[in-house]
Specification:
The chain is globular. By secondary structure, it is mainly β. Strand 6 and strand 7 form a beta hairpin. Strands 4, 13, 15, 16 and 18 form a five-stranded antiparallel sheet that branches. Strands 3-19-14-17 form a four-stranded antiparallel sheet, with no helix packed on it.
Length: 282
């Protein structure tokens, strides 16, 4: 490989063969360590132009013998075929604009063109969002009263009072005295327009060691109109299970990714996955 002598401003003698080397650099042109978990820190901090990280996680507290999406609401997730304005609803009178529970929440998702959008709305206001969402990828409490979180389950749906299609919910944990989670638990994601997603890690947890489940990593590429297909599968007999992909799964823009599971009745299942989004060339 050619070596350059900075002092003499010339190539070293008998060493002038040129090779092209591709390197990952931050937005200031500094080379980035590309080995191990530390290599992803500049991506998470936003220092790599056109790259960003996504961590998705979900929980289903009551799995049965029929596959269900890993989300708090239960059942198989229903996707919209056309965009819609959204409403928020809680059964608690404390989750209101001047209450002690959740007051406002932020909804993040995609519009009709699969571009990323978000909007912050008042809980239980019966007022629709101004933006239309085709996908909801996350929602979280933006402001709250002295409880610092939601008092009851908050539904995010296409009609008032939790009606229409429920696209996300912010649930509760605990028995007897419950605590609001403050954020949706959705083990699903859609790759935004203009990006390619690289899925690097998949985790599945089963709360009880005497419960067994089978989990599926599903994906469908909407540009081709393809149905969901299984991209990986895990048989889990309780505990925590992790799959690291040395060669990541590659998902083009507009791909829906979803985790489902079936197994012993009453199994509590959680799942998460990590994606690195890379902007497509212009």
């Amino acid at each position: 490989m050619a070596q350059w002598n900075k002092i003499n401003q010339e190539f070293l003698s008998n060493n002038k063969t040129l090779f092209e080397v591709n390197m990952l650099a931050d937005k200031d042109g500094n080379p980035i360590n590309s080995f191990g978990a530390a290599s992803n820190i500049p991506i998470a901090s936003g220092d790599v132009t056109g790259w960003k990280s996504v961590h998705k996680f979900g929980r289903n507290p009551n799995i049965g013998g029929i596959p269900e999406t890993i989300w708090m609401h239960g059942g198989v997730y229903a996707y919209l075929s056309s965009p819609s304005t959204l409403y928020t609803h809680s059964a608690s009178a404390l989750d209101v604009v001047d209450g002690t529970g959740a007051r406002t929440l932020t909804i993040q998702g995609l519009d009709v063109n699969f571009n990323e959008i978000e909007e912050t709305v008042t809980v239980n206001s019966d007022v629709a969002t101004t933006k239309e969402f085709l996908r909801v990828t996350r929602a979280f409490i933006a402001t709250a009263g002295e409880l610092t979180t939601n008092k009851d389950v908050i539904l995010i749906s296409t009609a008032v009072d939790g009606g229409g299609t429920v696209l996300a919910d912010i649930g509760l944990i605990g028995s007897g005295t419950t605590v609001g989670l403050g954020q949706t638990q959705l083990a699903l994601y859609t790759i935004p327009a203009g990006y390619t997603g690289y899925l690097t890690t998949w985790n599945v947890g089963v709360a009880a060691y005497n419960k067994s489940i089978t989990a599926q990593l599903l994906a469908r590429e909407l540009d081709g109109g393809a149905p969901f297909r299984t991209r990986d599968i895990l048989d889990c007999a309780g505990g925590h299970n992790t799959v690291n992909y040395p060669v990541p799964h590659r998902f083009p823009q507009k791909t829906d990714i979803e985790i489902r599971a079936a197994g012993d009745t009453g199994a509590v299942v959680s799942s998460s996955f990590d994606i690195i989004l890379v902007a497509n060339p212009a």
